[in-house]
Amino acid sequence: MTASGIDQRVRLAVIGAGEHASERIYPCLSFLPVDLAAVCDLDDSRARGKARAFAGEEVYTDYKKMLKAIEVEFDAVVICTGHATQPALAIDAMEAGYPVWTEAPPGPSATDAAAMWESSSRSGQTCMTGFMKRFSPVYQKMRTAIASTEFGAPSMLSINWSMGQRPHGWGNSFVLESGIHVIDLARYMFGDVTQVFAKEHDGHSYVATLTFANGSIGTLTMTVNRVDQFTEELHVTGDHGHYIKTDTSGRMMRYHSGEVVEVCDRPLSLQDSLKDIGYLGELTEFVAAVREDRQPATATIDCAYQTMRVHDAILRSAHEGGAVDIDDI
Ligand SMILES: NC(=O)c1ccc[n+]([C@@H]2O[C@H](COP(=O)([O-])OP(=O)(O)OC[C@H]3O[C@@H](n4cnc5c(N)ncnc54)[C@H](O)[C@@H]3O)[C@@H](O)[C@H]2O)c1
C-alpha cells in the first residue's frame, strides 16, 4: 500500500469462518474489488471450507501466525469471531499495521470499544464496526430526509423491534448481540444520546426512553418474546407535521400534515438481503476507505464506542433502576 492508497484489488485476511460470516460476510466478497489472501479460524476445517469456496490463498488456525506470516501479503483484516474475542484480535491486527473491520458489537462493553479506539488512534489504523443498518438504502433515505431543512428539528423517534428468534438461552445477551443494531440505528437517525431510562421484563423484553443531545426524545422497545416474529418499525417526527415511518418490509412513507409526500417501496420479493440490510454497503465502504487511504464515512470505532455507551447505559438503568446519564458510562 502506498501513502495515497491502493491502485489494485485489496487483499483481505478474514478471521472467523462461523455461521454469520459464512452466510453474510464471505458472500459479499464476490461483489467487491478484493482478493481473499488468507482465511483464519480456530477450526481448520471451517477455514479450509471458506478458502475453497471463496478462492482463499492461505489458511491459518492461529491469527498471530497469520499477522506475522511472510508467505502471504494482505492489506486489511476482517474479523468476525464474536464480541468476546474481537477486541484483542483487532488491537493485535492494528498494532501489526493493518486497518481492521470487525462485526458488531465490537466488544462486550464500551470499555472494550474504548481500548480499540485508543489502539486505532495510536497506530493510525482504521477500525470500523459492522453497524450495517447505516448502509441499508431505506435507512440512508430516511436519514437524508431527517437531515433536510424541510423536516425541521427532530422531535421524537420510536423503534419497535423484535428479533424473530426463540428466547431460550439468550438471557439479556440479545440486547448486546442483536439489539445493538437498533440502538445504533437510533443514534444514526437522531444523533448522540445523553440519557436513558430503561426497564426490562424477564430478560427477554426491554423498553428504553432516550434523550438525545439535540433535545429530542425517543423510545426503543426490544424483545425476543414474540418467538418467530421479526419486527422492525421506525417512526420519526420532525417539526410542523413532518413524519416518516418504515415498516418491517422495508417500506418508507413520508408524510406532511397528514398527506403522503413520498413512498419508497421495495417489495420483499425484490430485496437482496446483502444489499438491502446493509452488509454489502458496509464492506464496500471499508474496502473503499482502505483503497483510498481514508477513514470510513461512518461506523468508525469512535462512533461505535458511543453506541456501546448507550447499550451499557440501558443495561445499567434496567438493572439498577432510574435514569442513567451517558456521561457516567
Ligand atoms: N450484523 C449482523 O447481522 C450479525 C448477525 C449475526 C452475528 N453477528 C456477529 O458476528 C459475530 C460472529 O458470529 P457467528 O455467527 O459467525 O459466530 P460463530 O460462533 O458461528 O463463529 C465464530 C467463529 O470464529 C472462530 N474464532 C473464535 N475465536 C477465534 C480466534 N481467536 N481465531 C480464529 N478464529 C476464531 C470460531 O472458531 C468460529 O468458527 C458475532 O460478533 C455476532 O454478534 C452479526
Structure summarized in a few sentences:
This protein is an alpha/beta fold. The protein has helices at 19-29, 44-53, 63-68, 86-95, 110-123, 137-147, 173-190, 273-277, 279-291, 301-320; strands spanning 10-15, 34-40, 58-60, 76-79, 100-103, 127-130, 156-163, 193-201, 205-212, 217-223, 230-237, 242-246, 252-256, 259-264, 324-325. The chain has two domains: 10-133 and 280-299, Rossmann fold (3-Layer(aba) Sandwich); 136-271 and 308-328, Dihydrodipicolinate Reductase, domain 2 (2-Layer Sandwich).
Distance between the termini: 38 Å
Number of helices in the DSSP assignment:
10
CATH class of the largest domain: Alpha Beta
Bound molecules: nicotinamide-adenine-dinucleotide
The fraction of residues assigned to DSSP E strands is 25-35%
Order of helices and strands: EHEHEHEHEHEHEHEEEEEEEHHHE
